[in-house]
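Sequence only, no structure available. Ideas?
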Amino acid sequence: MLNVTLKKRQAFYLCGYNKETSLETCGKEISQLWRDYDAKKDELFDIYGCKKDFYGLIWSSSHTGYYNYLIGIEISNITHSPKETICKHIPETIYAVSHVPVSMSAFDAWTEYYEKTLPNAGYTPDKEHGFNFEYYPAGSKSDYELWTPILREL
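Reply:
I predicted one. Tokens follow.
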């Protein structure tokens, strides 16, 4: 089982490329989004500077059964974003954070995280906050973290 710690994080901005998807189609669609990100990330770097770390941001869609997945980078403010990107403001909150080995797929990690890790730790996701994310501090070929806003205080 994944270990979990609590971390308070200040509000921040992410900018990147987004895809609305579902559990049934996410494997294919998010794989394509990763390829698109690799091909287009220099557009983000030209405006915001080169970054080694990046995020996979997840939030509910207005369409039932769908969610949004954005691959992007943290930015200090929203000035001018490249065509086809979206920027999101992520509010300050307390997160449950789990470190995930690169050998574990994000799909398997999120499944274990929501079905076992969070319930066993006594944490309830804050659905009002609405943003969960994967954080890749050293790029996509290294270990990563899952971050979920929770209702429990530090």
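The first strand starts at residue 5 and ends at 9.
Hope that gets you unstuck.
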